[in-house]
Write a structure and sequence with these properties.
The chain is mainly alpha-helical. The chain has six helices and two strands.
């Protein structure tokens, strides 16, 4: 089982797909990493040699990933909130920060719907006799 940047990579996947399990590495970064480390993208992760894993970890050193990247993103958001920018206020309120419309969508950011206003009671049975 290969382990890079503190993450166990899925054994059965191809190298080019399996490397995306590391937070901060996408498909474009994978291409660059594999070329830099001279590893075949079609190789399964379980078939990687120790030397190839070492070359991949060496190539990964220049990229901010996992905990460092998460910390950097959180400090950027905190900075926006502290200076009181519009984006910071949107982050604080839990609303979309990049100009998306919230009238109909944005369920991911806004969360589960809550009923606003009064809930109507059922109409009482009519007093007219049934025919």
């Amino acid at each position: 089982m290969a382990r890079l940047a503190g993450v166990d990579l899925p054994n059965e996947k191809r190298t080019d797909i399996g490397l995306t399990a590391v937070y901060g590495i996408g498909r474009n970064n994978v291409k660059v990493l594999l070329e830099k480390a001279k590893v075949d993208p079609a190789t399964r992760i379980k078939d990687l040699t120790e030397d190839e894993v070492n070359r991949l970890s060496k190539a990964l050193e220049g990229i901010t990933v996992e905990g460092d990247l998460t910390r950097e993103i959180n400090t950027n958001i905190k900075r926006l909130e502290d200076i009181g920018s519009y984006r910071g206020l949107r982050h604080r309120k839990g609303l979309p920060a990049r100009g998306q419309n919230t009238r109909h969508n944005a369920r991911t950011r806004k969360g589960k719907r809550k009923t606003v206003g009064t809930v109507r009671k059922e109409a009482p049975a009519s007093s007219a006799p049934a025919k």
